[in-house]
Amino acid sequence: MKNILKSTLAILGVLVTFSSCNNSSNSGQKSGALASNVAERVYVAPGEYDSHYAFLSGGYSGNLTVYGLPSGRMFKEIPVFSQFPTSGYGYSEETKPMLNTSHGFIPWGDAHHPDISQTKGEIDGRFIFINENNTPRIAKIDLKTFETTEIIEVPNSAGNHSSSFVTENTEYVVAGTRFSVPIPQRDMPIKEYKGNFKGALSFISVAPETGEMDIKFQVLMPGFNYDLSHPGRGKSHGWFFFTTYNTEEASTLLEVNASQNDKDFIAAINWKKIEEYVNNGGGTMMPANYAHNVYDESTHTATSTMKKEVRVVNPSEVPGAVYFLPTPKSPHGCDVDPSGEYIVGNGKLSANLTVHSFTKMLDAIENKKFAGEAYGIPILNFEDVLAGVVEQPGLGPLHTEFDGKGNAYTTFFISSEVVKWKLGTWEVIDRKPTYYSVGHLTIPGGNSGKPQGKYMFAMNKITKDRYLPTGPEMEHSAQLYDISGDKMELLLDFPTHGEPHYAAAMEASLIKERSQKIYKLADNKHPYAAKSDADTKVVRKGKDVHIYLTTIRSHFSPDNIEGVKVGDKVYFHVTNLEQDFDVPHGFAVIGQNNSELLVMPGQTKTSVWEPKQVGVWPFYCTDFCSALHQEMQGYIRVSAANSDTPIKWSLGEDIE
Amino acid sequence: MKKASIIMIIGSLLLLGLFKFPLWNIMLGAPQYPDPLGMNIYIDGIKGFSEFDLQNIDGLNHYIGMKTIPKANEMWEFSLFPKVIFGMAMLGVIIGLLGYFNKVSYKYFLGWFLLMSVLGVLGMYDFNNWLTDYGGNLDPHAIIKVTNPDGTPMSYKPPLIGFKKLLNFDVTSLPHTGGYLMFIGMSLTIVAFWLGRKTSLTTKT
Ligand SMILES: [Cu+2]
Q1: Cβ B59–A580 below 8 Å, yes or no?
Q2: How confident is residue A347, by pLDDT bands cut at 50, 70 and 90?
Q3: Per-residue pLDDT band at B25 (split at 50, 70, 90)
Q4: CA dist A72 to A431, A432, A469, A479, A494, Å?
């Protein structure tokens, strides 16, 4: 109790200090005529394009949303880990396998940290990766189509949080576990956690050409919690850094029991060393069971394969590959500056920001200056690796990004602000309030060796008073700042969808021209595609009825179908014959138990319908596609289970 | 005369550009098509300006009952035109060569030009007929029927040359690279004639 009282007093003290700072910066804010200039800087005139794409994770929505900067307009929601009735993702037969896991079909996910693929330390705009926290998975979205094309489940992992950050040539995407668990999973008393649970840090290789993912190895670390991570870059390329908390290895009431140690660790992992070890046959294959789901763009179909083993590495088997850097206090964000020299550990409960030096770390390792070890892993001396401290910059530091001009920007959750400070001198340069309880922040390219630092946006957990209220539940909010000058300038508030944990952003020019407009019908290799009206047909196979259906403005072919019976399983395979940008057709049939379909030009999607009642039932196009969209409809006749109505279909004439 | 003959040969050979480049281009822009749809007319067939333009033009045109854009094998013109163009180019080269060796007079250059002009006018006449049929010969079951103020059915004939507004579409019809090469080539044969005449007059005096 005494402790709590003390810390409250301390926080109040710090607050007083900061509020004076805030006031001084507020009084300097522009107003009146100059403020209207701010509106011009985010105004994107009708028909004009934003200069940047931003990809915001949706947290509990399981999806990824695409925004334009500086307008803050939302362009698209990309379904990743959750079913999405808007397009039929996770409902259509082709996309159901994407959500397959070792726990079966999981229709929801908790999407956290998107990261764009890189080449030579620069964002290349090919793919974007994002992690799922709850049922550990990593997804890859192809930025040619803005569709999820691959999802790999991560075994031995739980709370896949310190993910999905990519190395500087996209050699690996990491998936670090937040919760340590028994590996392999087994029935054991929870109180025996300490020393028995382990934390798996997975290195998922990405094939240079295709982008195909594969778990190359997992490092089985001590049973701490692994919170966030960041690849080294430039001089520290080849290393990966992970923040830890609960180095106490408590299993209950963590808010107290995991906050006892004055310092937790940043785990520094020399993945190149482990990779070499693995390439020479190191590590052991461990039985596992995890799904690898791949969407094939030519068949428009995903397949799910269950993998049965994974290579694990015990860090003590690879001397010199893993070290612990003491970091105060329950660090959350782990961020590496563009040069690769500074590793920022944001101690949630620390009044100061700790910055480690990569050079000093190497030096300490070389001179074997160790303070001790944990589970066979050397612990370095705090003072030996410390580059500097940003003194009392704010309360509750979480995440840091960089502008490439020697400045860092850190979010402070408790004091709801972004603080700009200088690398090397550690002095605070500027601070701006956010609204409110800010989590992550993003600078376009900020997660690469070459930030494109004109804008920065902060993603907040609380929105109250920023927009018209919408009942108890509101969308979260982001604030966009111009960071091209010495001082940050607030430009815009914009609502975000779901809970945006992190975002990746980049100049639009890299993606825009490569964005695909249609799927070529000629390349459609879907086994049930009908590439012209001549290919349409209805085929019965036992109780399964396959309808090869086409759509074009403004009809289905066929539009009259008979011979289906109660108890059948009817597969509507809908091929959109259009080859025109932005002309999808929809498909829905009365009593459908899953969702509609939205079929892109040249694409085939399948919906299963199980008629339960005799009758003549309509189906129709759900996407207003043309002047005669309302006429885009058809009928399917359902006869009794024991009837002998023959299979027939027609378009443009009555069924004979 | 040698110079004139070489120009005659070059002029005739420029016709061969029609085997690579389109003769004519028709573009259709509309608010919902910020990237306009278009067709390039070659001497041996019609191609979309972009890969799927023909399919999309046909898709739009079916509302108003227009026929689909003809395939190469659906019009005799597309098998005849290449032969005529190739023949004329060869004829021009032969006349040029004969001129070079003083076997024929420069007047043949003008003869070739006049023949080419007659064929060209016939071609334009045929093209215009096709446009009239394409734009006016509509399916009586068309979904959308638009009439002129006087009650007659509206024609969707694209302009032979120039710009026209058809419903919400801005239609522009202009010669394309192959066409321009042909015009330049034909002009060169006139130059050849004029030059030949000049040299011949100088020699005589
Ligand atoms: Cu439709």
Answers
A1: yes
A2: confident
A3: very high
A4: 22, 19, 19, 9, 6
Number of Cβ pairs < 8 A linking chain A and chain B: 18
The secondary structure of A192-245 as a DSSP string is G-TTT-EEEEEEEEE-TTT--EEEEEEEEEES-EEEEEEE--GGGTTEEEEEEE
As a whole number of angstroms, the distance between CA A405 and CA A418 comes to 17
List CB contacts (< 8 A) between B54 and chain A: none
d(CA A96, CA A38): 45
For B151-163, write each residue's pLDDT tens digit: 888 888 989 899 9
Edge to edge, what strands does the sheet with B24-30 contain? Answer: B45-48, B33-42, B24-30, B169-175, B162-166
Summarised one tens digit per residue, pLDDT across range B39-53 is 999 999 999 999 999
Residues of chain B by 3-state class (helix, strand, coil), percent to 5: 55, 15, 25
Query: Token digits for A33?
Result: 């005529």
Confidence of residue A229 (pLDDT cuts 50, 70, 90): very high
Would an 8 Å CB–CB cutoff place B161 in contact with chain A?
Answer: no
| d(CA A635, nearest CA chain B) in Å | 21
The larger pLDDT score, comparing residue B201 to residue A610, is at A610
Which pLDDT score is estimated for B202?
Answer: 78
- For residue A628, give how far its alpha carbon lies from the nearest alpha carbon of chain B (Å): 9
pLDDT for A35: 56
Cβ–Cβ < 8 Å for A606, A93:
yes
Read off the pLDDT of residues A245-298 as tens digits, 9 standing for 90 and up: 999 999 998 888 887 888 899 999 999 999 999 999 999 999 999 999 999 999
3-state secondary structure of A18: helix
Q: If you ran DSSP here, which 8-state letter would residue B108 be given?
A: H
Q: State how far residue A519 is from chain B, nearest Cα, in angstroms.
A: 11
Residues ≥6 apart with Cβ < 8 Å to A401: A335, A408, A409, A441, A442, A443, A446, A447, A451, A456
Among the partner-chain residues B35, B52, B63, the one whose CB lies closest to the CB of A579 is: B52
**Which residues on chain A are in Cβ contact (under 8 Å) with B55?**
579-580
Nearest residue in A to B51, CA atom:
A579
Q: Closest Cα to residue A115, out of A240, A275, A16?
A: A240
Residue where the block lists tokens 């390329």 = A237
Whether residue A553 lies within 8 A of chain B, CB to CB, comes out as: yes
Q: Please tell me the distance between residue A63's alpha carbon and the centre of ligand 1 in angstroms.
A: 26
CA–CA separation, A390 vs A399, rounded Å? 14
> How far, in Å, is the centroid of ligand 1 from the Cα of A599?
10
Query: Position B88: which residue type?
Result: M
**pLDDT, position A649:** 96
Instruction: List pLDDT tens digits, range A395-445.
Output: 889 999 999 999 999 999 999 999 999 999 999 999 999 999 999 999 999
**Residue range A199-226, pLDDT digits in tens:** 999 999 999 999 999 999 999 999 999 9
Taking CB atoms within 8 Å and a gap of at least 24, the contacts of A509-512 are: A510/A123, A510/A124, A510/A125, A511/A53, A511/A125, A511/A143, A512/A49
Distance from CA of B54 to the nearest CA of A (A): 10
